[in-house]
Amino acid sequence: MRWLLVAVLSVVTMASCGAGLAPQAQAQGRVEAASDGLYLDGEKWWPAGFNAYQLSTNWGINRGCGGMVDLPEYFDSLPPHSLTRFNAFQELAINKFTGELDFTAMDAVFAEAERTDQMIIPVLSAQDGACESEKFKDRSWYVGGWKTDDENGTRLSFEDWVQTAVNRWKDSPSVAAWELVGEPDPGECVNGNCDWWVRTCPTDAAQVLRDFMEEAGAEIKTIAPKHLVTAGLIGGGQCGTGGDDYLFVTESDNVDFVQYHDYGADGIPLPGDQWNGLARRIDQAEAAGKPLLVAEIGENAGSCKTLSARASSIGQKITGQRAAGTAGALLWAFVPDPRPNDCTMDIGYDDPLFPLMAGFNTYG
């Protein structure tokens, strides 16, 4: 789920609190978020793992999003107490032949995670509509469209999908957290053009995003009070989360931990500037009393760099980030069909990043 990092600062200072539903009391689940990091089954946990966005792809059932993964092989390849982030989009629960809901492919992901006692973060939608409508989610969507947009009755609204998905897997012991939208950005398109260099950022963007997190997060917690909610923020100065707005959104009562997505700074532990860099985001998460997961770290290899050189670079990066106070790291991205002769971020089973991440993954 990689989108371009766009440094669009929201300059308005927000003084009011989110106008969403009241914060939900957190029942104790397997995963807990505290000011000093994440805990799993009561033990300190520093998860290291992968984005494996393709897990729900099943070409015999749904339209897919990438290649098909051998689910038992993938989950068996992971060390104990690992963490995987994957696409749990509505479109991947639609049977492409009947147009009806069909949970077969997604149920299989949860079943394999549970069989191997692995932890997962299901991402319920992507900001740019990838592998679904391909439509950018603008300010109007975050204000209310998420409750009503149903593609002319052919799909559930996002609110209905959240309720459907969370209800279905609310008792899963493998859910570390739910993620509402990957890389949210309540910008406004111009004359139908949603390219990042054309979009504008409304002055109330931070408030709009926080209100969404409050209300949609409350819906998750009402259904699954033992599960956490993570905000899938890029952290690089995007609309609604630039500068101090990142802290404002982080302080949402129904967000348990936040994210940073790290691209284009190979080997550098703390990329970015004093306003929107990772060091600033770590400080802001600490001020809010919430962990920060570096949920996407991407670096090219293959024809442009050896796999071992990439592993060394990423190892240096994660070592520095962990020392600076991050709560975990996930790489972009595992794929079942890596392309060794191309310059990509593909990670396959034989990649030295697998043992590297196993070494970083810490429990107890």
UniProtKB/TrEMBL annotation:
Q: Where is the signal peptide?
A: 1-27
Cited Gene3D superfamilies: Glycosidases (3.20.20.80)
- Superkingdom of this protein's organism: Bacteria
Q: Which UniProt keywords apply?
A: Lipoprotein, Signal
The answer to whether the entry has keyword Cytoplasm is no
Q: Does the keyword Signal apply?
A: yes
User: What are the protein's GO molecular function terms?
Assistant: hydrolase activity, hydrolyzing O-glycosyl compounds
Record-given protein name: Lipoprotein
Q: Which organism is it from?
A: Rhodococcus hoagii (strain 103S)
